[in-house]
Each structure stands twice: as structure tokens, then as C-alpha cells.
Amino acid sequence: IDQVYLAAAKVGGIVANNTYPADFIYENMMIESNIIHAAHLYNVNKLLFLGSSCIYPKMAKQPIAESELLQGTLEATNEPYAIAKIAGIKLCESYNRQYNRDYRSVMPTNLYGPHDNFHPSNSHVIPALLRRFHEATAENAPDVVVLSLIPIRR
């Protein structure tokens, strides 16, 4: 094996992150630790780790610079997930420094595509919004409630 692409993760929406914080931090740290270490043990020199944009502070200056990492408080709703992703980044950096590996981390944004997860409590922001808009349209609702905080007009 010449390269490893580490995109595996336990993911979910705000409700799932709030309900299962220990599962999110533990399972993601185990996935990252096991795969990154196995890549090293099998002498794989190149690894690409997919992190998450949630690793940056909640109030980071926009547009977010890489230097913002660990410079402020994380969003509370997904802090365990974010901490696990930060651990993966630091693990890659540590293998690079100690073992001269080429393990890199990239932070994809929230995306939407075919076969996305539209579950009412486990989806990410974009699919969750699309589901709510679809349901409101089907029910002829005058408003769409986002995160049960404020009504937003269609």
C-alpha cells in the first residue's frame, strides 16, 4: 500500500452529538489512532486525514485561517467530535515529526450530495435544512423552524 486516505468517522448532527458525546470522542479517536498507527506499522509513508471545519473556534475570525486552530473555544454542541478530529491532526503531525512520515490533514466543509443522511436527529446542517424545507412545503406550513430557535420565512 502506497497511500492511505482516512475518511472514516462517526458523524451525526447536533442532536446526536449532544446525546452521545462519549461515543463521538471515543470512537473517532480509536478510528484515527488505529488507522494512523497501522499505516505507520505497515510502512505507509503517505496518509491523508480528513478532519472537519468544526475544529476551529466558534468565534474564529472569517475567513478562517489555519492559525486559528486551538485559539479559542469550540462550538459546545460538537466539542467532543472536534477534539477527536484535532487529536487526529496532532497525531499526523507527531508521526511526521518523529518518524519522518508524510501524513497530511485537510478540513472539508459541510457538503451535500446524493444519498446524504436526512435523518431528523442525525443529519448534518444542509440535509437537515433541506428536509425541513421539504416537509414544510408538503404541509403548506407558513414557516420553517431551524434548530427550534427562530422561525425563518420560506
Outline the secondary-structure elements.
Elements: E1 3-6, H1 14-19, H2 21-41, E2 46-50, H3 79-99, E3 102-106, H4 125-138, E4 143-146, E5 150-153
Helix pairs in contact: 2-3
GO molecular function: GDP-L-fucose synthase activity
Pfam family, one: Epimerase
Protein name: NAD-dependent epimerase/dehydratase family protein
Describe, in plain words, how this protein is organized in 3D.
The protein has 154 residues and is of the alpha/beta class. It folds into two domains: 3-106, NAD(P)-binding Rossmann-like Domain (Rossmann fold, 3-Layer(aba) Sandwich); 112-154, no CATH class. The chain has four helices and five strands, in the order βααβαβαββ. The chain has helices at residues 14-19, 21-41, 79-99, 125-138, and strands at 3-6, 46-50, 102-106, 143-146, 150-153. A three-stranded parallel β-sheet has the order 1-2-3, covered by helices on one side. The chain has a two-stranded antiparallel ribbon with strand order 4-5. Helix 3 links the parallel strand 2 and strand 3 (102-106). The longest helix is centred in the first third of the chain and has 21 residues, at 21-41. The N and C termini lie far apart (50 Å).
